[in-house]
Sequence to fold (383 residues):
Amino acid sequence: MYLSRRDFLRQMGVLGLIAIETSQHSKFQNRRWQNQLVRWHLKLGSETSSSPAISSDGTTIYISTFAGNLYAIDSSGKEKWRFQVEGPIKWSSPAVAEDGTIYVGSDVQKIYAVTPQGREKWHALVDAPVRSSAAIAADGTIYVGTGVTARPALVVALNRQGRALWRFVAQGAVISSPSLGIDGTIYFGSWDGNVYALRPDGSEKWHFSAKSFITASPAVGKDGTIYVGTTEGVVLAINPDGSLRWSYRLKKGIISSIALGLNEEIYVGDISGSLYAIDSKGSVIWLFDTNSRIHASAAVSQDKSIYIGSLNKRFYCLDEKGQERWSFETEGEIFSSPALAPDGTIYVATGNGHLYALSGTSGLAASSWPMFRRDPQHTGRAR
Fold:
């Protein structure tokens, strides 16, 4: 009887050994490659849902934790300082002003201003837990949303000294971090089912009824279009006058905020685990399935790489056609949106408190809104 080489090796038990050896070599090579990808890895002292922010000179990374710590980490991964706030910090990611002041909110109804050296400048009471991130206007005014339930909540404007300038009442929590248009208009969503546009003096320009809770932060396109997703899974494109340009329904609800590519393409994930690329007219270009919920927002680099994390404990790099370039296995589920430094370093955190610095190939894309809160300082301000 004739035996092929494969059958002969199988009968002799050699093929299985070769397969095992090949598999072990492949795993070894993968571990080696993953180790080369990691510049450094730091275990924080607590869980976090915060997204890292980066100082304007790229030398310091800021991140907050459920234990109420605001960390400053240098670009080599060494802790510079930590600042303890009263109560936990949940979802409120740090925002960095032009003078280096860091703003972050806590669950005990306070927003803090912290110096670049880690000392408190001031704190302000805002009457409800803060789970949104602050937006910082060109004149230094800070805007922050409050509330955690469907009951009435506030958007508060504070000056650089922490004095309240005005308060706007929405009929539901404002976890959606406010975003600022080029003309200073403040955009945000609420659990009352509306997207709001306020003037810099706090008066309402308009509101758009989305008929669904909104947790995501709006993105502002180069033509002033406001993009935001709802927990019912609808992507809304709203004109600057408050009229609907178009809408598109995804498979599941949207928690993550929208990022915009170099051609104004929209990148948004849903809780089915799919990352969508949608053109500026509302047509799907492609989707990539992570097979697990996506809570984080994408970030787009100048070389058109798209970075996204998932609750499957994997962080992905995709090309502009939605094909996977690589993925990295982390120590925990990823709620954190990535931040890209000018040298291409990618900073991302896991829910169980691991902060990673990964090697990227280029800095942030020069698009109108390429990442969560628009820029690595999380100003939330269109330019």
Q: What stands out?
A: The chain has a mean pLDDT of 92. The first helix runs from residue 5 to 11.
